[in-house]
């Protein structure tokens, strides 16, 4: 199979951040026998593609939100939909318990647009240094909000009932870094000396935070 590629973003002539196919599609494959390697995945011969490669029913199903953060994210990216490979788009469904949240996090490879389906959400993002300006909004069903690529953002269910949102992201594999999990739940742990200085708190506070289990809601 001959597959033509072009870069969406480049750091240099030889380093590609993301690749898109000039063919109609490039279905991700686990077997390299009849495939080429593109953007972190093998691509099936287009003649072997089937409708199921472009289909996912998981966004229909509500998820259990009985966890410490009160939310669960259902992902629909290239790991669930092989046909998304090289297409530069994915989706998530987020279920929120009453007063649950999707904690502050970033997507290193994607911008996001989120729309509320049920309930009301307090959402926001913080700009980069040095301003660190906070943009926030309360969203109701049918309303949308954009989170720029790489910026810390969050959603919080303000209501006494469950909430549901859908979000589209500008990458087939946007990645997620939950701030608390990364800083206080890293493996191995970040030195307490670093964190006490960074957060200007007593070492006992850092020890307490590092001893917690930081729930992964993705």
From TrEMBL:
Name this polypeptide is given: Germin-like protein
Pfam families referenced in this protein's UniProt entry, alphabetically: Cupin_1
Protein's UniProt keywords contain Heme: no
Cellular localization per UniProt: Secreted, Extracellular space, Apoplast
Keywords of this entry: Apoplast, Disulfide bond, Manganese, Metal-binding, Secreted
UniProt-annotated binding residues for oxalate: 102, 107, 112
Cellular component terms (Gene Ontology): apoplast
């Amino acid at each position: 199979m001959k597959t033509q590629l072009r870069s969406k973003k480049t750091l240099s002539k030889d380093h590609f951040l993301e690749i898109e196919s000039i063919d109609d599609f490039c279905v991700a494959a686990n077997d390299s026998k009849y495939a080429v390697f593109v953007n972190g995945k093998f691509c099936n011969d287009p003649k072997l593609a089937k409708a199921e490669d472009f289909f996912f029913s998981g966004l229909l199903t509500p998820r259990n939100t009985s966890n410490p953060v009160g939310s669960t994210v259902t992902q629909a990216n290239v790991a669930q939909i092989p046909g998304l490979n090289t297409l530069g788009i994915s989706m998530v469904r987020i279920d929120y318990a009453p007063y649950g949240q999707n904690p502050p996090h970033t997507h290193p490879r994607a911008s996001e647009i989120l729309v509320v389906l049920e309930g009301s959400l307090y959402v926001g993002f913080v700009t980069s240094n040095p301003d660190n300006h906070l943009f926030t909004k309360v969203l109701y069903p049918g309303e949308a909000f954009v989170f720029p690529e790489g910026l810390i953002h969050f959603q919080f269910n303000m209501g006494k009932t469950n909430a549901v949102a859908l979000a589209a992201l500008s990458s087939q594999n946007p990645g997620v870094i939950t701030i608390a999990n990364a800083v206080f739940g890293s493996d191995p742990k970040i030195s307490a000396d670093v964190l006490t200085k960074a957060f200007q708190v007593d070492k006992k506070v850092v020890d307490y935070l590092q001893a917690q289990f930081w729930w992964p809601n993705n």
